[in-house]
Design brief:
Blueprint: H1 5-43, E1 69-79, E2 82-86, E3 92-96, E4 102-109, E5 119-127, E6 130-138, H2 141-145, E7 181-190, E8 195-198, E9 204-221, E10 231-239, E11 242-251
Parallel strand pairs: 3-11, 4-11, 6-9
Antiparallel strand pairs: 1-2, 1-10, 2-3, 4-9, 5-6, 5-7, 7-8, 8-9, 10-11
Length: 255
C-alpha cells in the first residue's frame, strides 16, 4: 500500500533536514581541519631556518663595540702637547700627547737590520719561491693593531642564524710565476742579501732586494720630529674628534 500524500511530504522533509545537517557538519569539519593545517604551517619553521630573537634581529645578534680608535691626517698646528690634524673628510682632529706617548718615523735600513719576528709588506715579483722586491716595508706593531679610520672594532658575540650551520669554503689562489705583485709575511731570518719570510698559509719565501730597491722601517722618534704638514697616524682612544694618543707614527711624504 502506498503511503498517503501527507506521509510522503513528511518523510521528504525529514530526509532533506538530515542531508543539510550532514553537509553543514562536513563543511565545518573541513574548515576546522584546514585551519589546523594553516596554524601548524605558520608555527613550524622550515628545515634549516633559525628562529629570530627579540628585537627583530636574528637570535643572538652581536653589537659593534667600543669607540673608534685613532686617526690619520696631515698636521695643521702644534701647541705644546696638542697636535691638530686634518682627518678624514677634512674633519679637524685634536691629538693629545702624554708622557707615555711613543713616537716612530720611517727610515731606510739594510736587509740585515730587519728584526726577526717583524711582519713585512713587499712589492715585487715572485719566481718560484724567490720574491724579488723593489720596496719592502717593515710594519710597526701600532700599524698592525690600529683599525682603519672609521671602522670600529667588532664586539664579541656576533650573532648567527639558528639551525644547521652552512659549511665555510675558503678558496686559495696560487700566484703565477713572476706575477705575485705583493707579499706579506713574518721574517724568520735576515742576512745581508735576503730575508726568509713565512706567509699566513705556512709557506716560506726567500725575499731579495732588486737593484735600486729599498727597505723602510719605523724607528724611534719624538714630538720634535712632528712638524706642520707632516702626515701622522695617531693610535689611541678616540672620543668624537679628540684622540688620547698612545703611539704616533710619522708617515713618509707622498710621492
Amino acid at each position: 500500500m502506498k503511503p498517503s500524500f501527507s506521509k510522503r511530504i513528511l518523510i521528504g522533509g525529514v530526509a532533506l533536514a538530515l542531508g543539510v545537517g550532514a553537509v553543514a557538519s562536513l563543511a565545518s569539519l573541513g574548515v576546522a581541519h584546514g585551519a589546523g593545517r594553516v596554524v601548524a604551517a605558520q608555527a613550524t619553521p622550515a628545515a634549516g631556518q633559525g628562529k629570530h630573537g627579540k628585537g627583530g634581529g636574528p637570535q643572538g645578534g652581536g653589537q659593534r663595540g667600543g669607540a673608534m680608535h685613532g686617526a690619520v691626517g696631515s698636521v695643521t698646528a702644534i701647541s705644546g702637547n696638542t697636535i691638530t690634524l686634518a682627518g678624514k673628510n677634512s674633519v679637524s682632529v685634536t691629538v693629545t700627547v702624554s708622557s707615555t706617548t711613543t713616537f716612530s718615523k720611517q727610515a731606510t735600513v739594510a736587509l740585515a737590520d730587519v728584526p726577526v719576528g717583524k711582519q713585512i709588506q713587499a712589492v715585487g715579483t715572485l719566481d718560484g719561491s724567490t720574491f724579488t722586491a723593489t720596496r719592502i716595508h717593515v710594519m710597526d706593531k701600532a700599524a698592525q693593531d690600529t683599525p682603519r679610520q672609521g671602522q670600529p672594532k667588532r664586539g664579541a658575540g656576533q650573532g648567527q642564524r639558528g639551525g644547521a650551520a652552512k659549511p665555510t669554503t675558503t678558496a686559495t689562489a696560487t700566484p703565477k710565476a713572476k706575477d705575485a705583485g705583493h707579499l706579506m709575511g713574518t721574517v724568520t731570518a735576515a742576512s745581508a742579501d735576503s730575508l726568509t719570510v713565512t706567509k699566513a698559509d705556512g709557506s716560506t719565501v726567500t725575499v731579495k732586494l732588486a737593484s735600486g730597491g729599498s727597505v723602510h722601517q719605523q724607528v724611534s722618534a719624538s714630538l720634535a720630529d712632528v712638524t706642520v704638514g707632516t702626515t701622522i697616524r695617531a693610535a689611541g682612544q678616540r672620543s668624537g674628534t679628540s684622540v688620547a694618543a698612545q703611539h704616533i707614527a710619522i708617515l713618509p711624504a707622498a710621492k
